[in-house]
Amino acid sequence: MRVQVPPRAFYFFMSHPIQVSASILCANFAKLGDEIKRCEDAGVDMIHVDVMDGHFVPNITIGPIIIQAIRPLTKLPIEAHLMIEHPSLYLDDYMDAGADIISVQAECYGPLRPGCQELGQYPKEVDEIDVKKAKADIDRIHAKGKKVFMVVNPGTPLCFDALLSNLDGVLIMSVNPGFSRQKFMPSVLPKIQKLRSIYQGDIALDGGVNAVTAPEAVKAGVNILATASYFFGAENPQEAVQYLKRLG
Does the annotation count 50 as an active-site position? Predict the structure, then answer.
């Protein structure tokens, strides 16, 4: 039986093949060069670097020096996911270090909700953002020839419709950011569906992506899957990547 595919759905899947982004948060940092090579050999499409400052999220990870160190090791695009307060102060540092994609959190551009305004109160969430302030950073990133994704935490609504035409993609967090190996939150699936209904650009997902959760995410409209423990913990990383890509 021949399956009839609506023209819009056909356009989406033809123009948005599934891509896999390997988050080095779960890599062996004592052998980071080897881990990057493992990503390449497995067929991942980009390297995802989680940058945390201990203020925006309850964890501290790495800075631009790591991106600078791995940039000569691979031709894969490197994404710097800035889970930090005041990202405007550090954009040039990450771009100059070699990041190809800068992902900034929507929550850094709006008034935080009560209960997450103080140090140590997480997750950070907003209901609206300062579009002009966010647009200024987007323009700075584009001016250096880099791509920019807007990131939104699970509890923050899609509050940046006015910026969608200026973005190269949107990254939906499916866990509250800060730590790896968290459980996927199915409550973000309607948000993905809503975004896909109005946005034809790249939609990425980060948090709890594995063989069980990825199919539902792709069905909802995701075309970039960021994976950390699922990839780096796999007995056969290449098979894991091939499985995710076949979902499209």
Answer: yes
pLDDT 10s digits, 182-205:
899 999 999 999 999 999 999 999
Between residues 5 and 96, the one the model is more confident about: 96
| Strands of the chain, DSSP E | 19-23, 46-52, 78-83, 101-105, 147-152, 169-173, 202-206, 224-227
100 labelled catalytic: no
For the domain made up of 7-246, the CATH class stated in words is: alpha beta
Catalytic residue (one of 34, 45, 161, 206):
206
Catalytic residue, from 50, 92, 127, 202: name it. 50
Sort 71 into a burial class: Cβ within 10 Å, 0-12 / 13-18 / 19+. middle
Tens of pLDDT along 135-149?
Answer: 999 999 999 999 999
CA terminus-to-terminus distance, the chain? 20
Q: What amino acid occupies position 212?
A: V
At position 145, the amino acid (one-letter code) is G
What is the domain partition of the chain in residue ranges?
Answer: 7-246
Residue 10 confidence (pLDDT)? 39
User: What is the rounded average pLDDT of the residues 21-29?
Assistant: 96
Measuring CA to CA, which residue among 210, 109, 92, 78 is closest to residue 143?
92
